User: Fold these one by one.
Assistant:
Number 1:
Amino acid sequence: MPASSHNAGPVIILDYGAGNLRSVVRAVERVGFRPDVADVPAALDSAAALILPGVGAAADTMANLKQRGLVQPVRDYIAAGRPFLGVCMGLQALMTVSEEGGKHPCLDILPGRVVRLSAGPTIPHMGWNAVHPLRESPLFDEIPDGSHFYFVHSYHCLPDDPAAVLATTDYDEPIVAVVERGNVVATQFHPEKSGANGLRLYRNFLRSALCTNDDSGE
Amino acid sequence: MTLTKRVIACFDVDCGRVVKGISFVELRDAGDPVELAAAYDREGVDELVFLDITASHEERQTVVDMVRHTADQVFIPFTVGGGIRTTDDMRLMLESGADKVSINSAALADPSLISAGAQRFGSQCIVVAIDAKARGDGGFDVHTHGGRRPTGRDAGAWAQEAVERGAGEILLTSMDTDGHQDGFDIAMLRAITDVVSVPVIASGGAGNAAHMIDAVRQGGADAVLAASIFHFGTCRIMDVKHAMAQAGLPMRLEHPQFDQPQPLSQAPTPSTKNGDHNA
């Protein structure tokens, strides 16, 4: 399985000071990869795949990314078509603006807004919910329609382009569960807390990211 | 709404060891919290709660190690309670890998601990545990010290205050029904679920699946917690979940295993998707 040199770099988990990365690191290890946790822009140069985890508020996330000089490097990385996975806040940070605690500009990689959940009977939307892919994607290999993933969030994404939505979940209204556009995928739920389905999702992402040039017949 | 109702298993942990072992599956070490957590994950449990009852302050590091090891190997959410008195205690647990912390008497002693924790870590991390007993006039009194010490506070009013201060979840234990395996305290549950907007976990009295269904249906609980009936194999997690699903409750019924005996490697994994399917 020869891979191009481009794909031989490390899996980078971006640490921007937003708390616990441990579960993400362990999940990536569990599916057979050795991630590097990095907090400097230079780490993105050689990355074969970039994971942006995250908990907390949008404003803090953006402030932390800025403080570390990571905003433009992350934008450049994604613009170069390289594999990217955002998790929870790592999804919301991709949007144009978040209305969490005011109006905060985000990375503006996926045009759209982050708004407070309105319909759910309880906020945060917390627990296991069924996720429904809207189309085929390698990200959902061996993950059947309706599989459950663990969500914890009070805000959700409204991308301008409906075609960016890969999967939804239902919380009185359809909620964006996964976006996928080109090299960018991002989940509202926490795959590292979603048992075997979540581990499969990490595996599927990293497989696609690191095996694009293998000779398996694509 | 398809958000599922959760079935939660609870362990008492003393000095990093589970106090009452479990017997529903063969384990090499029935007191090892990590092995137990992994076993429950395989059984299909939705979430875990560790209640640390370590008395000595010097031994507190044991729970930190336990949380770390659990987070390293178990990929479902878990809460740690017991002995958490400050936001620094919370931070230590959350940084070690716990998804939520549960506070009880420390919150009663200083309710601002709830707001401080919620502000620093987010409401979704802060569970307020309430132990209560029926008062006789239809109301419920909050107790501490395992139900021995009444606080004179009304459970409904305290739950409301906790949520206003930022609690993301209420773990409600009825000291009247706890340990009897005779069903949850539906009246107490109702008294709380009617007045708060956050998820309420029913605890105390689980004896069978019908009790769980009642707690959700009649009590308005979002999650049900049990210890002994799971630990001793009286009920299996998936049997309970299937019964709840048959009663019409949304449940997570699939619990696939992730078995990929792969060596750690940076090398690309061969894709099986487009592999030889020459049947």
Note: The CA atoms of residues 88 and 188 of chain A lie 4 Å apart.
Number 2:
Amino acid sequence: MNTEFTENLKDRYPLIIIGAGPAGLTASIYASRYKLEHLVIGEAIGGLAFEAHKICNFPIENEISGRDITKKMQEHARSLGANIIMDKVIGVQEKNEGENKIFKITTQSNKVFLANTVLLALGTERRRLDLPGENRFIGKGISYCATCDAMFYQNKTVAVVGGSNSANTSSLYLAEIAKKVYQIYRRDKLRGETSWIEQILHNQKIKVIYNTNIIGLKGEEKLEKIVLDTPYQGMKELAIDGLFVEIGSVPQKALIKDLSLQTDENGYIKVTSDQRTNRLGIWAAGDITTNSNNFRQIITACSEGAIAAESIFKFIKQHTS
Amino acid sequence: MSKVIELTKQDFDKEVLKSDIPVLVDFWAPWCQPCIMMSPILDVLSEELSGKLKICRVNTELPENRILAYQYQIQSIPNMKLFKNGIIIKEFIGLRPKEIFKEELEQVLNSS
């Protein structure tokens, strides 16, 4: 496994990008083209996009995996000289330095960096079911990553909960491996791209159960049954080997709260059209912001990263000339 | 210096089941983002807990290792099992921060 990230790191950068998904990596590419020295700190290189099994709407590729597309982005950013480190930022503090502000960034591995500007490309994390017993069954039948765990369900019966693109692509991927896939969705129609929905409806292995919620989890050593709020074929319990939770994602919260950034009612950072937050010196881009019209695609994250990098470049130029 | 050891089915017995010291086995795959995030944490822990704990990895993508994943009932990765005298004494599933994981490991190692 290649995890060696040996960089010649400095203590201080004009820009530090927190997050290494499509938004952060694109911002890095643009920043490098502007010769804007920067550091990317990402807990997950590639972000949540890494886990996408199949991407068919990114303009340069007919079909590509999340792993490959984010690998290309990372290679592109690195080829332009980007410093990218895998670490978790646990604190961003604003300090005064004469008349200027400076941000002190602390990571989980006790590294400290200073930055004149910060771009938050934090992304989102997966929403959980919040059902009793959920934690007990993690890794014992419950999974939040079909790409990671599908291979362990060869010829088994699984369920996917959710009805948007990530749930739909997970069902299709699991249908390639498992014996039977139940897709359980609370609404009466699947959402997301019509192409995926058509494939699901024509797939003999997938059975979509509409207007239904999962209200309970049962099993001894591992998950054995899920309890439905609406009977399916007369039964309120469905025997399965695995349950894949794909009910959307929620914004990362910790840093946003610490910095008192303005968010919408769901916790997404409010930004201007050039990706500025309400705090001077802090920008935000990608799935964490309100700027994609709730669409949150790889291409919208890339776009926001590019816009943010250009805006930061102009800001730094203005303040140093 | 104690590096993480890449295991195969062939050396599992020798390196894990017959080890003189406890062994943490990380079942992972290259398509798994949390596994990749866990990897540098295990590299550091392997150094820091050197002498007290041996850390190994099993790449479940390799066909020759699938039998190990089946045998140890892996359903979700990263899945890290702590062996002592050939017996699993603790299981850790999913990504966890380094310091928290180190504490968890030390607690088990000190009490077992």
Note: Chain B touches chain A through 31 residues (CB under 8 Å).
